[in-house]
Specification:
two-stranded parallel ribbon, 3 helices, alpha+beta, single chain
Length: 89
């Protein structure tokens, strides 16, 4: 397996009622990350998109985000956290 690394970080605003779409919100963090890493989309071989569907209301946002961010046709993977809430007694 080749070497894998995180070379830049970015995040979107933490706000209620973001005026744009979920794609635009993701782009905010992506743009910041690309600037931090000092790379362009052409330098990315693959991406991992993490999502919390109870918040973003997207069944499979990885493809939607990848296309919007210009990450196609590179492989894109989705990771969704599994949250289990115990029933109340």
């Amino acid at each position: 397996m080749g070497k894998v690394g995180i070379i830049g970080v970015g995040q979107s605003a933490f706000v209620r009622g973001f005026p744009g779409s979920i794609r635009e919100l993701a782009f905010e963090g992506f743009k910041e990350c690309m600037k931090d890493a000092q790379i362009s989309v052409k330098d990315i071989d693959a991406s991992v998109i993490c999502s919390a569907p109870e918040y973003d209301k997207q069944r499979s946002p990885a493809g939607v985000f990848a296309e919007y961010l210009g990450l196609t046709p590179q492989p894109t993977f989705t990771w969704k956290p599994f949250v289990h809430r115990a029933p109340r007694a």
